[in-house]
Amino acid sequence: MQLKELATRKTDDINYQKLVFDYTRHPDQETPQPARRPVVVVGAGPVGLALAIDLAQRQIPVVLLDNDNTLSTGSRAICFAKRTLEIFDRLGCGGRMVDKGVSWNVGKVFFKQEQIYSFDLLPETGHARPAFINLQQYYVEGYLAERAAQLPLIDLRWQNKVTGVEQNDDHVTLTVETPDGPYRIEADYVAACDGGRSAMRQLIGQESKGRIFRDRFLIADVKMNIEAPAERWFWFDPSFHPNQSVLLHRQPDGVWRIDFQLGWDANPDEEKKPENIIPRVKALLAHSPTMKDAQFELEWASVYTFACLRMDRFRHGRVIFAGDSAHGVSPFGARGANSGVQDAENLAWKLAAIIKGQAPDALLTTYADEREYAADENIRNSTRATDFITPKSEVSRLFRDAVLALSKTQPFARTLVNSGRLSVPATLHGSALNTPDAEAFAGRMVPGAAAADAPVKRPDGSNSWLLHELGPDFTALIAAGEEGDALVRSIQDLNAGGTTLKVLRAATGADPFGRSLIDEDGALTQRYDLRPGTVYLFRPDQHVCARWRKPTAAQIKDAINRALAIS
Questions:
Q1: pLDDT tens per residue across span 58-89
Q2: Residue 329 has pLDDT above 90, yes or no
């Protein structure tokens, strides 16, 4: 199948696990000299596809190479967080993800025979997207591939495997193997998004370092038709799987994802056999009154080992690493794919600004600084979760079990329970692109934080959301009032290095001039601690980079230059 054909077919007609894309010989393979491209992205998984789409939407041509010609098999990454969904919204496919996925906010924790507590990851209203959706990775890749097919600036080449990398001062030369033999292609920049076993990483002589945990887990995708809430259920030491842990998630199409802890001595080949998986599933179902009579069939299974690893540096000259090729975490907490998509979002606007001549090459180094910081945060949380879930000594197990027992009645103990602290975007506190606060603010929207959404009404009276109104470049959000109106007039045409600044007014009541976003329920005002004259400056990736109570146009211009690494 050709990629553009995929975009024209009805979703209901597509089995994404069985799609096979056609290899097509490209004109670049005919030229005696390597063709030169602005960006080559290696790896058409969720991270590579998201990066290519983001760049194309910013009018940067992209060549996307993948050594395979299929999407992923099995559920693999299934939990996609609110921030990732907001990124997918901006890429033009968030609605499809949410419509197909199973939305959830609530998690329940069990110890032995009983539920000890539950938690709500999104207890407040006023957000466009849920805390999480569960959606099999092949759907995510398929929807991203369909979006890519709509963008003429993306040149996606299947069965194009990179086998050589040559770094030069002003470009990278790649050797690419195809069914018709090798060819060479040059790129101003190369983004390596080719997964945990990254060939790109090996080709430039780098490695990921960290910790491998001595434990194994079985993933089983089970298809069954039962009625149960869309919640995350985690058991510690249940009677149906004693001395181990179990995690249950509902997915679309009547598929349920079950993770069984096995222990280090388990034989992966044996544990993947249906005759060994089915008794485990039956024991779990028999434990639940709502599931005990369910009929099921096994759809897919895999055994994995926990590992928390990362490269020392994510940038190597003009080759930049993102997603699992740069860092890897254990799956509890859903920090792998989510952090990879956030890598792509951070990288795309910076590459685009550099290629367009709006920012110096130094901006690309801040990608490595910021996303290495985020990776360390994810690895720290993932390691703590793994140590809690799989205690390595009897003393550790006694402590864990005491905390779990106490959590049934004592809320403070629940803060010590770690069944996988679930993915949230990193707040980039120390980023060199932030303008530090000079005045006092309340709330979490500090410089470096990913923007929080809030419902608003457009000037025409239609309903919208703050994140949908932010521009593709920099955006200034100005609280209405005399000071704000005067500032709008002074910066309406503000331009820094060719970057367009979008200006949004925000008002808490009716705007007689019909120019403002209206914050009817107060969520926007509360989340951003807005007062008349307050201004927030958002980067192109929707992170706050500066905020003031009553800034001048010159201060805003200086903050934009700082966020572009313009000295």
A1: 999 999 999 999 998 887 889 999 999 999 99
A2: no
Residues with Cβ within 8 Å of residue 550, at least 6 apart in sequence: 483, 487, 533, 534, 535
Predicted local confidence at residue 2, as pLDDT: 67
Q: Tell me, yes or no, whether 157 and 230 share the same domain.
A: no
Give 309-326 as a DSSP string. Answer: EE-S-SEETTEEE-GGGT
Same domain flag for 489 and 341: no
pLDDT per position as a tens digit, 434-491 = 999 999 999 999 999 999 999 999 988 899 999 999 999 999 999 987 776 777 777 7
Give the three-class secondary structure for 41. Answer: strand
Flag whether 163 is in a domain.
yes
- Residue 411: pLDDT over 80: yes
Helix or strand (DSSP H, E) at 463 = strand 463-465
> Average pLDDT of the chain?
92
Whether 295 and 223 map to the same domain: the answer is: yes
Give the type of residue at 63. Answer: V
Burial of 74 (0-12, 13-18, 19+ CB in 10 A): middle
Single-letter amino acid, residue 562:
R
Give the side-chain half-sphere CA count within 13 A for 304.
16
| Domain span holding position 20 | 11-100+131-209+309-359
Q: What is the DSSP letter of 182?
A: E
CB hemisphere CA count around 444 (13 angstroms) = 10
Q: Is residue 546 part of a domain?
A: yes
- Please indicate, yes or no, whether residues 91 and 176 belong to a single structural domain of this protein: yes
Tell me what pLDDT residue 335 has: 83
The number of distinct structural domains making up the chain is 3
Residue 370 in any domain: the answer is: no
